[in-house]
């Protein structure tokens, strides 16, 4: 039986191909959908790689986080399955983040080649934010338990396992928080660039 995630990815790619093809047929050289969709897909791939690496590492720190928290079955291949889980989650998050960034930065106007290059060049911001917050937040707040994991899992895990569970939870929380912060910075930077360019164009003599 085919993985539902793969079905959704194939459907997404098919819809993108159809819309980009129609856009090219109607607008020829002025068509920009393929650039926009390429940016969103690249953001998705970047998110997938980050999610895969993160869950591959964190599943070795706390397997319980993935078996109890994510519902993955126990087994010798847990790390591999956790990595695949992170890849899927990261791809979805990257697609959503890329689409939000595209809408905020380009709006309804077609994306120019220069805009596409600038957006691609700024993808390091959410990726770096995710990595930095994913590393820093467990060190800063790892002792805190805002969701009450210790009370809920006290009968299932010992003190060391609970500490590792919280550490991985804070890592994932930091990952998402850093991504959001990086996306916000990326959007503000692109919007500022667009506003500055518009001001310069408006100030030029006819």
The tally of beta strands, per DSSP, is 0
Question: What is the count of helical runs?
Answer: 8
Radius of gyration: 21 Å
Computed structural class: mainly alpha
Order of helices and strands: HHHHHHHH
Mean pLDDT: 88
Number of domains: 1
**Termini gap:** 64 Å
Strand content: under 5%
Main sheet characteristics: none
Runs in which pLDDT lies below 50 for 5 or more consecutive residues are 195-206
Cα shape: elongated
Give the helix proportion (percent range): over 70%
Task: Characterize the structure shown.
The chain has 206 residues and is an all-alpha fold. The chain has one domain (4-196). 81% of the residues lie in helices and 0% in strands. α2 packs across α3 and α6 (124-141) runs antiparallel to α8. The longest helix has 45 residues, at 159-203. The radius of gyration is 21 Å and the shape is elongated. Residues 195-206 have low confidence and may be disordered.
List key phrases describing it.
single chain, 206 residues, mainly alpha, 8 helices, 0% strand, elongated, disordered C terminus
Please describe the topology of this protein:
Elements: H1 4-27, H2 33-61, H3 63-69, H4 78-106, H5 113-121, H6 124-141, H7 149-153, H8 159-203
């Amino acid at each position: 039986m085919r993985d539902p995630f793969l079905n959704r990815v194939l459907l997404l790619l098919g819809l993108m191909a159809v819309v980009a093809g129609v856009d090219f047929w109607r607008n020829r050289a002025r068509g920009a959908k393929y650039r926009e969709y390429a940016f969103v897909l690249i953001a998705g791939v970047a998110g997938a790689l980050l999610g895969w690496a993160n869950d591959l590492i964190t599943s070795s720190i706390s397997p319980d986080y993935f078996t109890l928290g994510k519902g993955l079955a126990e087994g010798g291949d847990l790390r591999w399955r956790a990595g695949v889980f992170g890849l899927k989650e990261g791809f979805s998050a990257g697609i959503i983040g890329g689409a939000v960034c595209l809408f905020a930065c380009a709006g309804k106007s077609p994306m120019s080649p220069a805009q596409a290059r600038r957006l691609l060049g700024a993808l390091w911001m959410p990726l770096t934010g995710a990595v930095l917050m994913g590393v820093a937040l467990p060190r800063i707040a790892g002792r805190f338990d805002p969701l009450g994991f210790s009370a809920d899992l006290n009968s299932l895990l010992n003190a060391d396992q609970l500490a590792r569970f919280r550490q991985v939870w804070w890592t994932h929380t930091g990952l998402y928080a850093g991504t959001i912060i990086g996306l916000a910075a990326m959007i503000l930077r692109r919007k500022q660039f667009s506003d500055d360019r518009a001001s310069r164009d408006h100030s030029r003599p006819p």
